[in-house]
Amino acid sequence: MNLLNKFLKKTEFTSYEDLKNNYELIIPERFNFGYDIIDEYARLEPDKPALVWYNNDNESIEKRFTFGDISRLSNKAANVFKSMGIKKGDKVMLMLMQRPEVWISIIALCKIGAVSIPATVQLKSKDIIYRCNSASIKYICAIDDADIVKELDSARPECPTLLGYSCCSDLCKLIDEADDKLERVHTDNDETMLIYFSSGTTGMPKMVVHDYTYPIGHITTAKYWQQVEDGGLHFTWSDSGWAKFGWGKIFGQWIAGAVIVAFGDWEKFQPIKLLEAMEYLKLTTFCAPPSTLRFLIKEDMTKYDLSSIKHCCTAGEPLNPEVIKRFKEYTGHDIFEGFGQSETTVMLGNFGFDPIKPGSMGKPSPLYDIDIVDENNNSCEDGVVGSIVIRTNRIYPTGLFKEYYKDDEAMAKSWKDGIYNTGDMAWRDSDGYFWFEGRSDDVIKCSGYRIGPFEVESALLTHKSVLECAVTAVPDEIRGQIVKATVVLVKGCVPSDELKKELQNHVKNITAPYKYPRVIEFVDELPKTLGGKIKRGEIRKKDSQ
After folding, report:
1. pLDDT at 307 > cutoff 80
2. Residue 142 near residue 123 (C-beta atoms within 8 A)
């Protein structure tokens, strides 16, 4: 059984038009994910599987949790946080990777009305100081790691609101000893439940505020885009420090009754270990960012039995058609693309009713009134590139963020007349599919042409020598800007002028010749955010110096 009927007037749809026109949420008053999902499952079906934790780094370790377990342990953790002085509205940062304690802690904080702030373990002391002082963080929970402890100790004197921190082993001991009885704390739907620090490809990260209805918004993400199944094992490749965790590893999946899978607390991403784990666990549904899929297809995926998987999807950045083609050759599965941000749930996606157009982000989610607009917020005709926006004049969609916390400048830049501008560029075809062009800062203007980096990157990635690439603009006296490709080659491939020429001709043969990269630079790795997104702005800045 699952709880979808409590939140949807209709759960099954026959077409995209049916989904778009008849999808209607039921939002309870004072909804709280901890009580109304976790505790409700524990009451109705306490032995229902909830979480499988698996680590196959040096030796295989496996733990399984039911909803009864998560309910009881989150009550205990809630009492631990209360004993530390954490109360309703206080902010707690979690640096727990994919340890079971991250699920337990998020649910516990939700139950007592405190605010969870997910964070990556890659943060340095300056990052911790920035986050603590920007959000007035009261407490931090982190994995047991000497380097992280060093950074926390270094940061703590400069964080006046911070009461302290606990490492995972200490937190576990406290949870074991705590009382499992908890009295419900009343929370209102519009109160802050969660704050993401956006990874930000430029500037300092913004604080993205979500309220207590945010988990309900992710029903669309889980049930209709990821197509999770009640009792099926779902895996999204994401550390708990990112919004992708909220998209794929907790909220919509548990509402839909899926079993969440967590594995891979490795120091470095290992595609073979991932494939081994996928085979062993026999996943039902699978979601991973394009960067992960690009690495997987470079391995011989035919060695692994992935026949249990029924559905695959991706988001985070556009997926190049070559990856889609190769993945299907290996697995027989199409990849269902989607699009959204830390600020949203899934905004655009392939929902399974209409044919997939490889490289397209799909069609609008039923939750959002999405449009493509020009600089004056006027709607663009089909085929014209503009900004992706969400119109909120008629109704404010469940799952859309409430504000950038303490950042009036960012709010003024992204919101105008009830319209949220995502900062991403795209165009819509005559069938209603959306096609990504790039961030507004990434679009290249060369000799009067507008060139999106994605198409050029996709062309380059079809070459056998290219592992990763980033396409950016460099200034040019004659053309204004020209296309540059920064390229990471596959292992064993040697950079040369001959290879540069070969790659340029390769692009000319695949896409419009004017889009070819006139400049190619070979590098060992691309600059990326802590969340793994390519920092094209950093490449542009370096080239302008």
Report:
1. yes
2. no
Closest CA to 266 of 104, 149, 491, 98: 98
Q: How far apart are CA 281 and CA 404, in angstroms?
A: 39
Q: How many CA atoms lie within 13 A of 333 on its CB side?
A: 22
Write down the pTM of the prediction. 0.85
CA 316 to chain centre: 6
345's tokens: 């749930």
Residues 6+ positions from 87 with CB-CB distance below 8 Å: 112, 113, 114
Token pair of 364 as six digits: 């609008």
For the stretch 35-47, pLDDT in tens is 999 999 999 999 9
Largest CA distance in the chain: 72
Sheet holding 348-349, edge to edge: 61-66, 49-55, 259-263, 233-236, 285-287, 311-314, 335-339, 348-349, 363-364
Region of 282 (left: φ > 0; alpha: ψ -120 to 50; beta: rest) is left
Distance (Å, rounded) from C-alpha 421 to C-alpha 388?
6
Looking at every residue in the chain, the average pLDDT score rounds to: 92
Q: Is 138:85 a contact under the CB 8 Å cutoff?
A: yes
Q: Residues 116-161: pLDDT tens digits?
A: 999 989 888 988 999 999 999 999 999 999 999 999 999 999 999 9
H/E segment holding residue 59: none
433 — phi, psi (to 5°)? Answer: -85, 145
- Angle at alpha carbon of residue 48, lines to 185 and 241, rounded to 5°: 60
